[in-house]
Amino acid sequence: MSRFIFAAIVILIFQQPAFCSEKIKWLDWSDEIFKRAEREKRFILLDLKAVWCHWCHVMDKVTYSDPEVAALISEKFLAVRVDQDSRPDLSNRYEDYGWPATIFFHWDGSEIVKRSGYIPPKEMLSLLKAIIVDPSPGPSVKPEKPLSFSNRSSLPEKLKEQMLESFFESYDYELGGWGFVHKFLDWDCVEYAMRRAMAGDRRAEQMAKQTLKAQLQLLDPAWGGVYQYSAGGVWTEPHFEKIMSMQAENLRIYSQAYALWKDPVYLETAKSIRRYLKEFLTSPQGAFYTSQDADLVKGEHSEEYFKLDDKQRRKLGIPKVDTNIYSRENGWAINALTVFYSVSGDKEVLDSAIRAAEWIINNRAIEGGGFRHGEVDPAGPYLGDTLYMGRAFLSLYTVTGDEKWLDKAKKAADFIQANFAAEVGFATASVKCSAKFPPKPQRDENIALARFANLLYRNTGSKTYKDMTDHAMRYLTTEEIALRRPTAGVLLADEEYASGPMNIPVVSKEAKQ
C-alpha cells in the first residue's frame, strides 16, 4: 500500500461516525453489582480491557456493537467494563486471560466462563445463549488447588536445579528470547542471565546478548520507545502499543547491559527509550503517563502508519496517550531513570526522576507512607503502587546519598507490612478491600517485594526488612509457584537473598561531580 493511499484511508476513517457499543449500558465493578444481579437474576459480564489494546478496540467496534449481541447482553446480563490499568487487583487476578479478558459470573459471584482475547459476534452470541441455558462452570473455570506453602526462605538445591533446567529449556536458541509464542524482552530472564554471565557462565552471556540484539527489532525507529511484543513466535510482527512497564524495564536492562559490557548499542538504545519517555509520556508537571495506543484509529490496524517517519506520522495524527498518572507506573519509570543516570551521568535524567517522585509524593501519598494508584482508588490501596515507589526511593538514595529517600523507602515498606501482609506473601491489594473477592498474593509483585525488602535490609541492617523478605520468600519458594515459567525472577530473588544484588550499575565519575 502506498503512503498516499494509506493517508487517504486514514482521512476517510476520521470522517466516518465514531463506533461505540452505546447500546450496552456499561457499569462499574463493585461488590454491589452482585447484589443487584441477585435481585434481578442476571448474569454478569466483565469486559476487562486496556485502553491501548488493538483487539479491545476491535471487540468494541465489531462484537459489542452488534445489535443481537447488545440486545441479549442488555436483557440477561449486567455488563461491567474496567480498564485493567486502573484496577491492579482485577488485572493481577485475570492477567492470564487478556487483553481483552471476558469473564462471566453467576449472580452468586461464582465464575462461569473465562475467555482470552477477541470474540467475534457469532461466537459471542452462542456463548451468551449457552450461559443462559446452563450457567454451570465451563472447562475454563477450574477449582483452585490449595497450596501447602513453604516454610523456607530460600530455595532447596533440588528445586533450584529444576528451576535452572527450566530456565535453559524455555530459551529459544534459534531466535533468542524466553518463550516461543510472543517475543519480548523478559527483564527478569535477561537480568538473571547477566548475573550468571558475571559469574563466568558463557552460555547465559550469549543468551542475554542474543535477546538484547533481537529486542532491537521492537524499538520504534521514528520515536524511540519499544513496542509491547511481537506475535507469531518471531520478532518481526510487533503489536504497536507502548506501555510503561516495557519502556521502564527495557531502559533499565539496556542500561545495566551497557554497564556490564560497554557495548555502545546498549547505551544508544537506552537513550532512545529515554527520548520517547520524555517526549510522549511525560506530563507538564513532570510525572509520567501510562501508555500510548497501538492504533491511530481505534480498531484499525496501524502497521502502515508505524512504517512512516516522524514528519509523516504527525501529518496523520498521533495515537492516543493514556494521561492517567499512576504511582506504580511512575515507580517503574523513576527506578529505570536512576539506573540510566548511573551509567550515563546525565544530570537532566536524575532531575527528571526526582521531579516525578516529588509529584507523586505531593499528589498520591497516603498517610503512613503508602500511595494511591490514581487520583481516586475504588478498591485500593494496591500493593504495586507503594512497592514500586518504595523501590524508586531506594534507587534515588543509591545514586544521591540523600537520606530523605531512604527514609521514604522505609516508610513505604512499613506501610506494606501493615496493609498487605497475607498468611504467606503479600496480597496485591489491601486485605480488607473486598469481601467477595479477597485479594491474593501475585508472583511478580512478591518477587519485586522480596528484592526490595532485601535491599532495604542490606542498606539499614533492620531485622524488620529481613523478616519481610522471609515472608515473601516463603510464598516464592513454594514449589508450585517457584516452578511456574519463567523461573528467573524467583531465582534472582533467591540469589540476592543469599549474596546480595549485582554490583552494577555503578555511578559514573561524571555523575558524582
Model description:
- The protein is α+β, with helices and mostly antiparallel strands and 513 residues long.
- It folds into two domains: 18-133, Glutaredoxin, CATH 3.40.30; 157-290 and 325-512, Glycosyltransferase (Alpha/alpha barrel).
- It has helices at residues 3-15, 32-40, 54-63, 67-76, 88-93, 121-133, 157-169, 187-198, 202-215, 244-261, 264-280, 310-316, 327-344, 347-364, 383-400, 403-420, 443-460, 463-476, 479-482, 488-499, 509-512, and strands spanning 43-49, 77-83, 101-105, 111-116, 229-230, 238-239, 242-243, 291-292, 321-322, 365-366, 370-371.
- A four-stranded mixed sheet has the order 2-1-3-4.
Question: Layout of SSEs?
Answer:
Layout: H1 3-15, H2 32-40, E1 43-49, H3 54-63, H4 67-76, E2 77-83, H5 88-93, E3 101-105, E4 111-116, H6 121-133, H7 157-169, H8 187-198, H9 202-215, E5 229-230, E6 238-239, E7 242-243, H10 244-261, H11 264-280, E8 291-292, H12 310-316, E9 321-322, H13 327-344, H14 347-364, E10 365-366, E11 370-371, H15 383-400, H16 403-420, H17 443-460, H18 463-476, H19 479-482, H20 488-499, H21 509-512
Helix pairs in contact: 4-6, 8-9, 8-10, 8-20, 10-11, 10-13, 11-13, 13-14, 13-15, 14-15, 15-16, 15-17, 17-18, 17-20
Helix vs. strand class? alpha+beta
Query: What would you call the shape?
Result: globular
Question: Mind telling me the C-alpha Rg?
Answer: 23 Å
Mean pLDDT reading: 93
Low-confidence stretches: 1-20, 507-513
By CATH, the architecture of the largest domain is named Alpha/alpha barrel
Instruction: Name the helicity range.
Output: 40-55%
Order of strands in the sheet with most strands: 2-1-3-4
Q: Report on the biggest sheet.
A: 4 strands, mixed
Distance separating the two termini: 53 Å
Number of domains: 2
Task: Name the CATH class of the largest domain.
Answer: Mainly Alpha
Give the tally of β-strands: 11
Portion in beta strands:
5-15%
The total of helices stands at 21
